[in-house]
Design brief:
alpha+beta; Creatine Kinase, Chain A, domain 2; 11% strand
Length: 555
């Protein structure tokens, strides 16, 4: 079915100033404790002339499926011209051999991160042999589970371990679910911020402990308020029926090839995708770092009867790394994670215990279908401002009731967040999404203005202000616009996304070629990564069995 793509733009700014735009949604009449504490803290931040919210480090990880020119999942190996997926710092793979992952360095400006991401796309397209990159979070026309190729990382012990882990994910959750793609945003506040903010709060704790506690406060509030990210940026309200692997999913049909939810924002982040019921029994505390590490390690040691039925090593081949609730820490699906760069061979939890939380990883952004790089600067600016808001706002510890409410709000926003009848729950009371989102944006814009005051200009405040239209009118959200396009063009989700994929390929072919310096940087990384993989493989002196035993027995 042919699909004609119409040009569109999301979240255009209006002629009103940001302040006036925010004024169209009245503030709540009664201030709660959280609002009072936020107001006190934001005023202190604004008064501190030597404290800047500008310059926090930002990095992007963006996934894209490789597909053939007809839109089917690629069955080709990872292109050698892109280097080693095991060791290339900028271009690797995620679950599948066909699922590319682009990784930017951490930059102090959104422009630098955006430019690098565009450059790595352009470099990759120049080296793909008659293939496209899929432009949506929900996958292209994918085959049966057994025909989705696992990512391969060579013959070294560490490379084989990475493949075994992915094989285990396939047995546990299904390979089709692992082909869902997204954008991860990594963020850390400026180093010089912490001691000054600690002084503002009158906190006398060890600075490493203080920093970890503040990041955990941010994480708890991101979980509380993260439904707003799904509403504002969710772009997966529909999907190709091949995702069901021939099974009938309980979802309306938009047409013969497309399933959809009429008011969905992000099927990727619903119980259909990453909010998977297989992990509903895993309870990881976010109230303090020691508890988080303890619970995550406990899940790696807790036997799971269903996974025991799969087996670990069957007929000489590893099916998974263990039969426990989690094989490794990264298996735990969460819209946000505390992170620290690990040393060679170091577990993520060991890195956190050694040095505390260094940055956070946001995992709930869908790929922006309209943007050739999958994400843009305004999205980054909002997320950065929102994350700082989540830290500055008072963040109470979780109990079981609060966690259940948070989970409900995210899952239902993903499935039906644009429904006029939909209600979120806040401390047990129903509230409209527009009301709560308006209150949040009033505070986020205050953070954005502080960033702008240090950087000059008004780009952060404008990025937040541009989203007000989406709160007031759900039909202007990315998810609603996608369904509108599919309906107006009378085409399937697959044909629509394939048309966009071809246009993005043409875009990268038409723009100014990479600079000699950037192209040389990528080429050096290709060569270096291939050499490093060879060195790793040559250095192995123990068996895979012994390597895995040593890894899981290490602290």
């Amino acid at each position: 079915m042919a699909c004609t793509r119409q040009a569109r733009a999301y979240g255009k700014t209006t002629g009103r100033t940001v302040r006036n735009a925010l004024a169209i949604r009245p503030a709540p009449k009664k201030k709660n404790v959280l609002s009072q504490k936020f107001e006190k803290r934001i005023n202190a931040l604004a008064a501190a002339s030597d404290l800047s919210l500008s310059g926090g480090l930002k990095g992007i990880e963006k996934e894209s499926l490789r597909l053939d020119m007809d839109g089917y999942l690629s069955q080709k190996p990872h292109p050698a011209a892109l280097g080693s997926a095991l060791t290339n710092r900028f271009i690797t793979t995620d679950f599948s051999e066909a699922l590319l992952e682009f990784v930017t360095p951490a930059y102090a400006s959104t422009w630098e991160a955006q430019q690098f991401l565009c450059d790595v796309h352009q470099f990759t397209y120049d080296r793909l042999d008659d293939e496209l990159l899929w432009v949506a979070s929900m996958p292209c026309r994918i085959p049966q589970d057994k025909d989705i190729p696992l990512a391969r990382y060579g013959n070294s012990n560490v490379g084989q371990m990475k493949t075994i882990y992915r094989r285990g994910l396939g047995y546990r959750y299904g390979r089709h679910m692992q082909t869902i793609a997204g954008v991860h945003f990594n963020y850390s506040l400026p180093e010089e911020f912490w001691s000054k903010y600690q002084h503002i709060l009158g906190n006398n704790a060890d600075e490493q402990e203080f920093r970890s506690d503040q990041y955990l406060s941010l994480i708890r509030n991101f979980r509380r308020f993260g439904w707003i990210v799904l509403y504002l940026f969710g772009a997966s309200p529909a999907m190709c029926k091949s995702f069901g692997g021939g099974a009938d999913i309980d979802m309306p049909s938009l047409n013969a090839e497309t399933w959809y939810q009429p008011f969905a924002t992000s099927l990727r982040m619903s119980d259909l995708g990453y909010s998977n019921q297989n992990q509903s029994g895993i309870d990881i505390s976010l109230n303090d770092l020691d508890s988080y590490i303890h619970d995550l390690r406990g899940a790696m040691q807790n036997p799971e009867p269903d996974y025991a039925k799969i087996g670990v090593k069957v007929d000489g081949q590893y099916r998974q790394l263990s039969t426990n609730s989690l094989q490794i820490e990264n298996e735990y699906y969460s819209p946000i994670r505390p992170k620290r760069v690990a040393r060679s061979g170091e577990k993520p939890t060991a890195a956190l215990r050694r040095g505390g939380i260094e940055y956070v990883e946001i995992r709930s952004l869908d790929i922006n279908i309209d943007d050739p790089a999958g994400v843009n600067q305004n999205t980054m600016r909002f997320i950065e401002s929102f994350l700082i808001y989540c830290m500055v706002e008072e963040s109470l510890p979780y109990d079981d009731k609060a966690l259940a409410e948070i989970t409900r709000n995210q899952t239902l926003t993903a499935r039906q967040g644009r429904d006029p009848a939909f209600r979120l729950y806040r401390d047990g009371a129903a509230v409209t999404l527009a009301t709560w989102a308006g209150e949040i944006l009033q505070k986020v814009v205050a953070i954005a203005e502080l960033i702008d005051s240090a950087e000059g200009g008004a780009s952060y405040a404008q990025a937040v202000g541009a989203l007000l239209e989406l709160v007031g009118d759900p039909s202007t959200t990315p998810s609603a616009k996608i369904l509108e396009q599919l309906t107006n063009a009378n085409c399937s989700f697959f044909d629509y996304a394939l048309t966009v994929a071809r246009s993005h390929r043409d875009y990268f072919a038409s723009i100014t070629p990479l600079s000699d310096d950037r192209n040389a940087e990528f080429e050096r990384e290709v060569t270096r990564s291939l050499q490093q993989q060879r060195e790793i493989e040559a250095s192995d002196e123990i068996s895979l069995d012994q390597y895995l035993e040593n890894y899981f027995n290490s602290d």
